[in-house]
Amino acid sequence: MFNASGVLVSVQPANAPLGAALRRGEVAELSALVQPVLNGAGAQIGSVQADGPEGPMAFDLTALPLQDGGVLVFGRDVTLHHNLRAALVESRQRYKDFVEISSDFAWETGADGSFVFVSPRGALGHAAADLVGRDPGDLVLEREAGAGALPFHTHSPIDAGELWLRAHDGAMACVHISAKPIYARDGRWMGARGVCRDVTRERERDAQLARARSRERILNHIVRTFRDEVEPKNMLQVAAETVARGVGAEVCHIFRRQGEGEVIEGTLRTFMPAARHGTLEFMFALPLLERLGEDDELIELTLHGRDVLAAPTRYHHAVNGCVVLWRGADRGPWGADDRLLIADIADQIGIANEQIAAHESIVRISRTDGLTSLFNRRAFFEELGRRFQRLVRDGTSAALMYVDLDNFKMVNDAKGHAAGDAALLAVRDILLTHTRPTDLVARLGGDEFAIWLEGADAAVAEKKARMLLDLTSVELLPRSGRPDYPLSLSIGVAVYDPSHPEDMEALIARADSAMYTIKRGGKASFALAPPFRADTLPAGAPSKGNAGGPA
Question: pTM, whole model, 2 decimals?
Answer without folding.
Answer: 0.46
